[in-house]
Write a structure and sequence with these properties.
This protein has six helices and nine strands. By secondary structure, the protein is an alpha/beta fold.
């Protein structure tokens, strides 16, 4: 599949112009190991080493859509891997926005920093345990979790602004649902969407 075919497929599925524009601008091949670069625009997850994957574009588009991103927002991705979703987030929140990534695999932190160094001045990547979130940069308008969790840690939830949205795959090792949670007040959170039938790599902790 060519990039144009992938974009057409995403457009046919009804994704917004801002999401399509982000996928158009970001070169997925730049975030892939050499041995799978030719498969960059297949709508499938691909291995990036260290037991991790780059998610299927359609799945990423679903999660970005649920996040309801706006220009100028401050966003956090936990399990940022090779940096591809961070690049998409960066395009959508724009130059006035900020995107922060947390990744536990040291080699992927280095790789993502290399991948993002030239074109994405509004992204910062940290080598940390994602279950801790990124307290020093909180609160966030949006939080994206890019690996499967049984439950979203309270510490991460507490780093979401009131009115903010967190999107994560939640469930067992072998099947999850993508959930979108909105923080209604300091103490109240509401699940605003559940989409079943997904499989992500498990969240890695130290």
């Amino acid at each position: 599949m060519k990039k144009e075919e992938l974009l057409q497929s995403l457009e046919e599925k009804g994704f917004s112009k801002k999401i399509l524009d982000a996928f158009s601008k970001v070169k997925r091949e730049d975030f892939l190991p050499r041995n799978v670069k030719t498969m960059a625009y297949k709508d499938t997850a691909l291995p990036i080493g260290h037991g991790q994957t780059i998610s299927q574009p359609h799945t990423i588009a679903i999660m970005l859509s649920l996040m309801d991103l706006k220009p100028g927002q401050k966003v956090l991705e936990l399990g940022s891997g090779c940096g591809y979703a961070l690049a998409l987030l960066s395009e959508i929140v724009g130059g006035e926005g900020k995107a922060f990534g947390v990744e536990v695999v040291k080699e992927l932190v280095k790789k993502s920093k290399d991948n993002l160094s030239e074109d994405y001045g509004n992204i910062r990547v940290y080598h940390k345990n994602g279950v801790e979130g990124l307290e020093e940069k909180a609160p966030f308008d949006r939080i994206l979790v890019s690996a499967a969790l049984r439950d979203v840690p309270e510490k991460v939830m507490s780093q979401l602004k009131v009115g903010g949205i967190l999107v994560a795959p939640k469930g067992s090792r072998f099947e999850q649902e993508i959930i979108a949670i909105k923080r209604k007040s300091k103490a109240e959170f509401e699940v605003i969407k559940k989409l079943p039938g997904f499989i992500f790599v498990p969240f890695v902790e130290y």
